[in-house]
Amino acid sequence: MLLFTDELYWRPAGQLDDTVRAGETVFPDIFGAHSSSISRDDDRARLFDTAIATVSATEQAAIAGSYDFAERGTVVDVAGGTGASLARCSARIPGCAAFSWTANRS
Fold first, then answer.
1. Which of 41, 58, 79, 83 has a CA-to-CA distance to 104 between 20 and 30 Å?
2. How many domains does the chain contain in total?
């Protein structure tokens, strides 16, 4: 909830019409490059990570339950954070290969 009261959220959200019209985010225009603006501030980085993990946790079961995963295969979670979504999805696929990749902020 705290993320929604932080300028990291509400300033870009306030320009959603510009994002839709341009077809690209206004975030860099406001804050500079996404990852660098978050990583420069440890408190903001923790706020962002916690918020994203919380939102993701509310969606994981629905996503894992609604997708028709192949009996065997590979699941890749790009920018997977804690890997909780990947774990939930790969638990449904016996014998699958599961990979997570998240960029380092430093």
1. 58
2. 1
